[in-house]
Every structure is written in structure tokens, then in C-alpha cells.
Amino acid sequence: MAEGAYPASWYAATRDAAPDRPQLAGQTEADIAVVGGGFAGLHTARLLAQQGQRVVLVERHRIAWGASGRNGGFVGPGYAARSGLLIDKLGLDHSRRLYAQSQVGVEIVRQAIEAFGRPDILMGSRKLVASRTDQGADFADRTRRLAEQLGARFEPWSTAETREKLDTARYFQSIHDPTSFHIHPLNFALALAADIERLGGRLHEGTEATALDRKGDRWLLRTSQGAVIARHVVLAGSATLGQVHGRLSRAVLPVATYVAVTEKIGPDLGAAIRWSGAISDTRRAGDYYRVVDGDRLLWGGRITTDTSEPPRLREMMRGDIVSVYPQLRDIRIAYAWPGIMGYAPHKMPQIGEIEPGLWICSAFGGHGLAQTAAGADAVTAGILGDPSKARLFSPFGTDWAGGPIGRAAAQLVYWQLQASDWWDEKREARNAERLRT
Ligand SMILES: Cc1cc2nc3c(=O)[nH]c(=O)nc-3n(C[C@H](O)[C@H](O)[C@H](O)COP(=O)(O)OP(=O)(O)OC[C@H]3O[C@@H](n4cnc5c(N)ncnc54)[C@H](O)[C@@H]3O)c2cc1C
């Protein structure tokens, strides 16, 4: 039986009932073995099972026990690495094809929710990304140009349009994406798992993959109490992959971020946030939030490489909310929880075949809900003989993220990013002051 319950969260409190899946005991055979029961592993297993492949998935804890069951729930195109940087590095054509692959991921998620007949999993449509600094007169032109270059459908909103929806002086212009939406991620993961089983796939919880050996033209994946012999193995364990593949596990950096859900707020919330879509800001370590359950605020934010839970997490999150919406000063936090994202140093996912029959689908950072589906689609196509989608990701290797030393270095980088957010805002406040006097 699977170990433990889900960690306490609003998602766990509102989740669907799901069976405990048995541990893998003894040796079994499959076409494909998947390590990790988060969205990367679940989408991969489902897409392959849809193609008639015999799939076995092993998960150390429970389905979507990691980031996939605890995140902000935003589904949208793009990647954790900024599009402008991708264009500089790869050129326009390649960046456009990468963006298109992320749009494929969005569609896979949308179509799966439709196919499951679960409209309640889809909790709202559209997204606003608001700037905390004035972006100047050319913001609209720059935004439209970037959208055109990428083949994207996002569009600029002025400061007045933004503040009409979000009653805070913190925000200036924003980017409106009509193609994004937001979901109940844990229930979506549980629905994916049920669908894999309907398609004949086998899921094992409480089962850690511990070692991997070549056996002729197949792989032997050893687990805590058993083993799988398979032609292909897909490693989708993100930042907690562990000893099953030491090099790949070191190539993904664990970065913590936090989510809180308030108690029910009443009409004050609707007065402050007149928008049922998702919201985030443009900072490197920004806030992301949405209204759930009618009048609760689900608020995510902060990043750190310290993966332990801070003792005063609820107060920290409440302070973050009130700093943007001072009119909500009386709110109370009902749930707060941490989650671990997996980042590669280049901030792009690691997707592809690293040895014959050994695949990776990992390192989705803070942009994983659609991108895991995009990655799974690329890996599935690769396993079935078309490597072109996986090749899109080949410039982003599985370089070393550095273990404890790399983590300290990454923490310094994050502090620098947060400092530059702070300087941007300070400069903005000084400019505003100058205009007033
Ligand atoms: C708090 C938070 C908020 C976020 N908000 C958003 C958001 O709003 N939108 C968005 O797009 N992204 C968001 N993200 C990122 C997104 O959740 C992740 O990118 C995505 O869920 C990653 O999926 P995954 O399957 O790669 O990893 P995970 O969900 O972490 O799954 C990996 C699984 O593999 C298992 N595993 C690892 N190693 C082994 C092993 N050796 N044997 C067996 N099992 C193993 C783990 O137990 C785990 O369950 C957020 C992340 C967090 C933490």
C-alpha cells in the first residue's frame, strides 16, 4: 500500500477519492517503465498507453505527491526561461517552434479535462501578468511584437485596464493571455492516473526506483521491492530523482516556493480582485494568485533553495498579500504549504533520449503544468520513432547543478534577482515622487 496521506493543503482537503495503488513486488515486464507520478510521468504514461504501449509507472510516495499536487494551478504556454532570452540564444524560428510545443501542452491538458467529463477541474480562464514598474510608452508595441514573433495570442493591457480588474496601486501595465486557464491540479493528476489504468497502464505507489542496469537491448529498473524489465525507461522524477541516476539527479536543482489559501473572505475579495482568471506579476521571484471557492484567495510566491518549511509561513504569506492589497488586511490564512520545483541551471526543461532507450522528461521549474504535457508529447513521439520534437530541447543539456555547492551558488543568484526586483521598484517609486513634486 502507498505510504502516508497527502501533505495538508487546500487541494488535499478538496481532492477526489482515489484508490491506494499497490507497491511493485517481484519482477515484471513492460514496453516502457516510467519513474515519477507527477505530471511529467503521468502525461508520458497516458500518451504512450493511448498508443497501445504496455506502461508501468512507479511513484515513491503517492500520485502527484510532489509539485504536481501542490502548485498554483496555472496552465499556460511558454517556459521558465524568458522568451526574449530564448530568441537571443536560439533565434526566432527555433524559439517559435519551442513556444508552439508549449501550446501543444496547453491543448493536451484542455482536451484531457474535456475527455474526462470533469469541467469542475477547470476553475477559470485567462491570465494577467502585471508589471510592478511602469513599462513606458512603448510597452504595447514591444508586447505585440513579441507575441507576433512567437506566434502567441497574448496582448498588452494599459495600467488603467489592469487596475480596472485589480484594485491595487502596485500594478502598472499587464499582459493578457486569453489561452491560459487554471485548474485543480491534484484532481487533474488523479483523473490522469485513473485514465492510464483504464487504458491498461499499471501504477505503483510507495515504490522507489533505486537502480538502473542495461540488460542486452532492454533496461532493468530496480525498485524498493521489485524490478521492471522494459525497452524504454523515462525518468520523470524532477528534483527528487535520487540514486536511480546520480548524474541526472544532480543536474536538477530543488527550489522551494509556497502557496497559501485564505479562509473565506466575503465581498471584500470581489471588490479588490474583479477577475476570475489567474494573476501573476513580472518579477523574477513574483507573486501568483487566483480566486478559488468563490471568495478564497489562493496565493503563491517566494523562491528559495532552502527546502525546509519556514516556521512563520502563514504570516509571511499574509504579509505578501496585504502588501499588494492593503484593503485585505483582515484576512486569515486557512492553509499554507511548501512545494519543490526542479530547475536546471538554464531554466529550460530537460527532454530527450540520453542513452539508447533511456529518456528524461524533467526540470520544468515554475512552468510545468502545460510544459510537462509538451515534454511528454515529445518523449512519446521519440519513443515511437519521431525524434523531431525532442530535438527542439537538445540545446538544453543535463549539465551539473552542483549538489550542495551549486545550491549555495543558486541561492546567491536568487538573492541577486530579488535585489534587482527591489531596485526596479525603488527607481519607479523615486520617479513617481519626482513627478508629484
Ligand atoms: C508551490 C508550487 C507552485 C507552482 N505553480 C505552478 C503553476 O501555477 N503553473 C505551472 O505551470 N507550474 C507551477 N509549478 C511548477 C509545476 O508544479 C511543476 O513544474 C510540475 O508539477 C513538475 O512536474 P514533475 O512531474 O516534473 O515533478 P513532480 O510533480 O515533483 O513529480 C515528480 C514525482 O516523481 C517521484 N519520484 C522522484 N524520484 C523517484 C524515484 N526514484 N522513484 C519513484 N518516484 C520518484 C516524486 O515522488 C514525485 O511525486 C509550481 C510548483 C510549485 C512547487
Description of the structure:
The protein has 437 residues and is of the alpha/beta class. It has a domain at 125-181 and 254-340: D-Amino Acid Oxidase, subunit A, domain 2 (D-Amino Acid Oxidase, Chain A, domain 2), CATH 3.30.9.10. The protein contains 13 helices and 17 strands. Strands 3, 4, 5, 6, 11, 12, 13, 14 and 15 form a nine-stranded mixed β-sheet that branches. The longest helix has 34 residues, at 403-436. The model has no long low-confidence stretch (mean pLDDT 92). Bound molecules: flavin-adenine dinucleotide (FAD).
Radius of gyration: 22 Å
Total number of beta strands: 17
Per CATH, the superfamily of the domain at 125-181 and 254-340 is D-Amino Acid Oxidase, subunit A, domain 2
Beta-strand residue fraction: 25-35%
Low-confidence stretches: none
Could you tell me the mean pLDDT?
92
What small molecules accompany the polymer chains? flavin-adenine dinucleotide
Derived structural class: alpha/beta
Assembly state of the chains shown? single chain
